[in-house]
Amino acid sequence: MLVSQILRTKGDSVFTIGPSESVGAVAGLLHSRGVGALVVLENERVAGIVSERDIVRAIAAHGTGVLSRPVSDFMTANVHFAEPGETIDSLLSRMTDRRIRHLPVCKNDRLVGIVSIGDLVKWKISEVEAEADGLKAYIAAS
């Protein structure tokens, strides 16, 4: 299963925010959109990614005063990306090794979607269930 197949089904919508937006605005958007991360765009290029985890760490380290500071102060600037032709297995391995939960998907340096570890696990389970059903049908027919 490829990332492009996941995006065809789940859609290519990505919630983004600018680097000068406040951490409080990010928290509000994460809550209202029901997502765990936002991609930070600057001049239509990915400048970073900010997750619920980043916000919690910022508040734990600096107090609630960070809510008025720009997200660029706390975002993850060293973003790991996925490409549409990559497999679920390769992304699951990369995300587990790096302890990350979201990967923006880029094609030719253009943001085309985002996948979460939850998206990948859901598809992996479906893939394994389909394989098991196929094996059961084969055994029953033998």
Structural summary, described in words:
The strands form two sheets. A three-stranded mixed beta sheet has the order 1-2-3. The chain is built from five helices and five strands; from the N terminus they run H-E-H-E-E-H-H-E-E-H. With about 140 residues, the chain is an alpha+beta fold. The chain has helices at about 5-10, 25-35, 50-60, 90-100, 115-140, and strands at about 15, 35-40, 45-50, 100-105, 110-115.
Largest beta sheet: strand ordering: 1-2-3
The total domain count is: 1
How would you sum up the global shape? elongated
Order of helices and strands: HEHEEHHEEH
Identify low-pLDDT runs: none
CATH A-level architecture: Roll
Would you report the number of β strands?
A: 5
What class would the helix/strand composition place it in? Answer: alpha+beta
Residue share in helices?
40-55%
The span between the termini is 28 Å
Q: How would a crystallographer describe the biggest sheet?
A: 3 strands, mixed
CATH top level assignment: Alpha Beta
What is the gist of this entry?
The chain is α+β, with helices and mostly antiparallel strands and 142 residues long. It has one domain: CBS-domain (Roll), CATH 3.10.580.10. The protein has five helices and five strands, in the order H-E-H-E-E-H-H-E-E-H.
Helix and strand topology:
Elements: H1 3-10, E1 16-17, H2 23-33, E2 37-42, E3 45-51, H3 52-62, H4 88-98, E4 102-107, E5 110-116, H5 117-141
Parallel strand pairs: 1-2
Antiparallel strand pairs: 2-3, 4-5
Helix pairs in contact: 4-5
